[in-house]
Amino acid sequence: MSKIIYTKTDEAPALATRSFLPIVKAYVKSSGINIETKDISLAARILAVFPDFLNEDQKVSDDLAILGELAKKPEANIIKLPNISASIPQLKAAIKELQSQGFKIPNYPDEAENNTEKDIKSRYDKIKGSAVNPVLREGNSDRRAPKAVKNYAKKNPHSMGAWSSDSKTHVATMDAGDFAHNEKSVTIKDATSIKIEHTDSHGKITILKDSFPLLKGEIIDATVMSKKALISFFETQVADAKAKGVLFSLHMKGTMMKVSDPIIFGHAVKVFLKDVFAKYNNTFNKIGVDVNNGFGNLVEKLKELPEAEQKEIQAAIDAAFDKGPSIAMVNSDKGITNLHVPSDVIIDASMPAMIRTSGQMWNADGKLQDTKAVIPDSSYAGIYSATIDFCKKHGAFDPTTMGTVPNVGLMAQKAEEYGSHDKTFEIPSNGTVKVIDASGNVLLQHNVETGDIWRMCQTKDAPIQDWVKLAVTRARASETPAVFWLDENRAHDAELIKKINTYLKDHDTSGLDLRILSPIDATIFTCERLIKGEDTISVSGNVLRDYLTDLFPILEVGTSAKMLSIVPLMNGGGLFETGAGGSAPKHVQQLLEENHLRWDSLGEFLALAVSLEHFSEVNNNSKAKILGETLDDATEKLLENKKGPSRKAGELDNRGSHFYLAMYWAQELASQNKDEALKKEFTSIAKKLADNESTIIKELNDIQGNPVSIGGYYEPNEALINQVMRPSKTFNSILE
Ligand SMILES: NC(=O)C1=CN([C@@H]2O[C@H](COP(=O)(O)OP(=O)(O)OC[C@H]3O[C@@H](n4cnc5c(N)ncnc54)[C@H](OP(=O)(O)O)[C@@H]3O)[C@@H](O)[C@H]2O)C=CC1
Ligand SMILES: O=C(O)CCC(=O)C(=O)O
Ligand SMILES: [Mg+2]
């Protein structure tokens, strides 16, 4: 039987699933729709790669691999919730928790010293960082705010911090020596294979990556971040933040850029604590400090030293913080700085959050302050500086009047930077890095120095063709101007522009307003239209897809959780992502402390509706179409009646909002006249839900206010988590 696959993930979305999925299953059961769950949580992904360490009854299937295969087939219909892209501290915490639950998986070896450890490390490294999305994304992305969401925001605007023209907030980015300035790019004429070689100053050759195939028409590019330039940039910025009296904050994407960005993060920590590292470097090496995992790693490792030594080093650290600029805080109560954990501040969410808050971040006293946002590589930093300049000039955006910016993003088959981690290297010694094809031609070459970060990206031709088509289709469907955010002066973009100009000819573009603008010009063009209430589609590469689908939604509708995020898979299936944001770790904290889940599942409602529509088309199932349409109507009603989760314990939360969705959905099904059986079934359910509304809401709200336990963070106890997420006996019995 055809089915819809529902993913079980992590943190807030996984909690929400425990409440929402039973509703969905109950509602679609009579329509011949099978819902199957696949577990791609961090915990399950760890267990899946270590069967040889587990008892028979502890082994789990590799659901991610199964879904990765499915995504390439026409029958794929996958609802994908956000999942943890684990930084090393998160990975280690998950390992520890699983071990405490009796799973005898190995520790993560920081330094793999023998073959066994190398094998273990390589298995973990496949799980690390953004390891799920790139596997499932066998298509390009189409993300937009549905009309109902946009209209709701216009009538009920979220808070927007005012912007003043004398704000000292700014973006600091490199003007030489970074990835942007060193990029070289070529388009591959005929299929070939390539290898990546490092040659040191004595002519000794090391293979960085063995021969792998390239397809005809692929664009490849390579570039290098100079360690020297990076360190000198950080030194300048630390001093400048101090001089200007603004917070120092670093914004990276350590999850998707899981090889390069932790290294860059580490350099920032070392520069910020320069005197400490100068004095205690030997000690740090001895205890295995690795600040690529953040300053928090140093804090943890210090505990291994004798108390007197700890005290001495702590005093040196305190002195360094005193001497340096103030630093942006993730949690000022707990003393967690922006440099503690690479996964705490992730650029796509962190920069828009700052822009929404008058360009300010929290300082150590828990007060908002102007900020220097440090984004070392200048490839995309300009979009944030242009937005900030725009706000300084025009004031904050006004959600009641502003237009919207849907995005068509190139991401299929690990396109561009987000597929580069297996071709990213921290350079061992001075020399050159060459990309050499099967005939021995050198396609790309850089001079490099010890510690530089060199990387290569691939962008396949078929995804580019599909992306151009998707852009034209979207521009036509919504009759909106579309801008390709590409810089003709950047090597990779120049190659891409050639292809766009070719492939646009395959489509009827008459009457469409299609342009190609550099990211900075595109930002200004788009923002100028936005404040006039005009819409502009952004057509972008993979990184800007990620950045723009948090930036504009957060400004327009307060969060990217309310986005419709569709991935039409290139082989005909559908991947329906639930919103454009992440897994909101802060929401789990609140649930555990006060049994209130402020997570909004709106993205999930929207995704399910399009998944049902897709299901109905593929399987000729008219009931699925009705279920999808009525779900959309119910979602609109939910918005109108303001039944989204509140942020405060004791008030309607995620669970209560699911109840209302269920009630409205049943009412819509009861009032439609296209399918008699559905009408009959849901008339009775709708009545029972409405009759018991106050009892159910009381049951859902009264339990809030006290701490709860779910028996694990990464691998919660099923019975406990279900109990917590389904606390209304009345509601549960109606669903049964
Ligand atoms: N598609 C995916 O799988 C993605 C996964 N991630 C992963 O998610 C984790 C956290 O990432 P982070 O960058 O902090 O971004 P998040 O999007 O998880 O969180 C940022 C903030 O946005 C708000 N928010 C996000 N989603 C919702 C929602 N559904 N309802 C209400 N508010 C919401 C919350 O604000 P507030 O706290 O003010 O309520 C939240 O703290 C990381 O592990 C990251 O790798 C990140 C992006 C995409
Ligand atoms: O896969 C990830 O780590 C994050 C993905 C993301 O942020 C996005 O697609 O918007
Ligand atoms: Mg994102």
TrEMBL record:
Binding annotation for NADP(+): 80-85, 133, 582-583, 587, 598-600, 647
Site (Critical for catalysis) location in chain: 253, 418
Keywords linked to the UniProt accession: Glyoxylate bypass, Magnesium, Metal-binding, NADP, Oxidoreductase, Tricarboxylic acid cycle
GO terms for MF: isocitrate dehydrogenase (NADP+) activity; metal ion binding
List of residues binding substrate: 130-137
Annotated GO biological process: glyoxylate cycle; tricarboxylic acid cycle
Binding site residues for D-threo-isocitrate: 143, 545
Residues engaged in binding Mg(2+): 348, 546, 550
Co-factor note (free text): Binds 1 Mg(2+) or Mn(2+) ion per subunit.
Top-level taxon of origin: Bacteria
PANTHER family to which the protein is assigned, alphabetical: ISOCITRATE DEHYDROGENASE (NADP(+)), ISOCITRATE DEHYDROGENASE [NADP]
Family: Belongs to the monomeric-type IDH family.
Protein name: Isocitrate dehydrogenase [NADP]
Natural source organism: Flaviramulus basaltis
Higher taxonomy: Bacteria, Pseudomonadati, Bacteroidota, Flavobacteriia, Flavobacteriales
